[in-house]
Amino acid sequence: MDLKTKLEYVIEVADLTVAYDVKPVLWDVDLKIPKGKLMAVVGPNGAGKSTLIKAILNLLIPISGNIKFIQNRADTKSNIKNRVAYVPQSGNVDWDFPSTVLDVVLMGRFGLLGWIKRPGKADVDIALQTLKKVGMEDYSSRQISQLSGGQQQRVFLARALVQQADIYFMDEPFKGVDTKTEKAIVLLLKDLKDQGKTVVVVHHDLQTVTEYFDWVTLINLRVVASGPVDEVFHQENLRQTYRSTGMLLKGMAV
Amino acid sequence: MTPQFEIQLIAVIVAVGCALPGVFLVLRKMSMMSDSITHTILLGIVLAFFITHDLSSPLLIVGAAIMGVVTVWLTETLTRTNLLAEDAAIGIVFPLLFSIAIILITRYAGSVHLDTDSVLLGELAFAPFNRMIVFNTDIGAKAIYTAGTILIINLVAIFLFFKELKLVTFDPVLAAVLGFSPTMVHYGLMTLVSLTAVSAFEAVGSVLVVAFMIGPPVTAYLLTDDLKSMLIISVLIGTINGILGYQLAAIFDVSIAGSMATMTGILFISVFILAPHRGLLSIFRRRKMQKTKFGKMTLLFHLLNNESSFIQEQVSQICIVQNHLNWSDHFIKDIINRLQGENCIEVDGVFIKLTDKGRKTTIQEYNELFS
Fold first, then answer.
1. Which of B278, B299, B317 is the last residue of a domain?
2. pLDDT tens across A218-250, in order?
3. Closest CA in chain B for residue A118
4. Maximal C-alpha separation, chain B
5. In the CATH scheme, what architecture does the domain A1-75+169-248 have?
6. Of A92, A100, A110, which is closest to B167 when you measure between CB atoms?
7. For chain A, where do the domains classified as CATH 3.40.50.300 start and end?
8. How far apart are CA B149 and CA B170, in angstroms?
9. pLDDT over 80 at A111, yes or no
């Protein structure tokens, strides 16, 4: 309990309800996102995982609710838009767009530059360093249309990293990537955590939650549970989340 | 300046002015919206004319620009309901607004020079008659200055907001997260398109405006993978279309706007067939080369595999190989001839076998492929 009282939070979501048409997708969600944690958002299809992230990022208008970004003393950026980075699902953009890998990564710097100002040499340097970090340094001048799914994901990750934000939101970064890339991405996420950043990841694979994350939020329309993985990620909560009576975790006898 | 030169100059200025925003229309998959806007702005012009009763008032341009943005907004609002697709929404909004404009013109403005024919096709040949007079001096055709102003506005806007246009076009969600309102950039671009259309269609008509906006960027897209180059190539192609189109019209004594639109189509088809990487011809050639290359590798691998099995002793019968690989007579002959020419295999009657060089190449290629 002592640990918990010391937790600093970066975002507080209160009474959030979102609906598309008439069907609620998120129902009265209260959630606190702790600072410096690697948090998985887990739930069945259509549970509102991506919607939760989009609502926090102000990308859609909720029916009700408050999203509060808490300014911590250690935060370097005062502007909310510069504090937050977002890695959307890579399938959502047109990969035939006439651009190179470097061009796309540089887009991550645009928020820090503001209107009209162009990216300079310093931005290019940061972008190239980051590409190296995600193992894509040989691809910087490659056309984005030539990338594989895993490479696209790495480029999107690099684009988020160059934002040098405090809080990272990622929508299924492991979707369509091979095991090797998945492990590489996990290492990067842990690296971010070690730097004191907060990382929130929409995640699908229940089997890897304990291995990859230290915090987990289980949602299905509402928040079923949210807390440290070892406290809340158990059979009973998962059953409530997935409304299933079967075994959801391998090797976890009830 | 001769009228001929002036006509070509106007055409080039209009073409370049249209190609610049056109690149972003094409990349945003909004080509058909330009068709809609170039027609519906007529309603804006008519309504503004009813207020001012002056055909040369700048308010007409403002009215047209507003109507262009209204067109986009109406279309997108309809699309957002998810009850109909965007192309269907265009099919509703465009005829509705355009026909209202036509009815208003024929009913209330019949005596004024707001001629529906000239709206659709324009008449470049008459453009030089409309002069720009400053302090009693004739400084050239008026269209040069109206179209020139819009060209400069487009150049400056795209130069200043290149980064924002690129970001919003590629990934509007990221743009929103980073604080660049996609809606604002979007409607900014649509305002530019409307302004461009209204300035251009007086001179060249709405059909040619569409050809100028969409043709060059689509052609350029086949030639480059870089957004900046795409802008530059579009501008060049627009220029070529304008000049060659005029020559075509002069030679055959036909409609200038029609010739330029035709030229746009001809140039597109030529690039579509001949473009170095994405053209039909080079795709065809590349497929053929790949087919031969894979055929050669397949045969070599097959021979090497047979060597290691002890039933065949370093030789294979051609007809059995052909049977295994299920190749046509023509194809296997072609591949054998090529490999023989490269000294990779030896043919002895109905038998073929790998040469030492062939074996080395095969192992090397195998390792490259599977390591």
1. B278
2. 999 899 999 999 998 988 888 888 887 666 666
3. B163
4. 101
5. 3-Layer(aba) Sandwich (3.40)
6. A110
7. 1-75+169-248
8. 29
9. yes
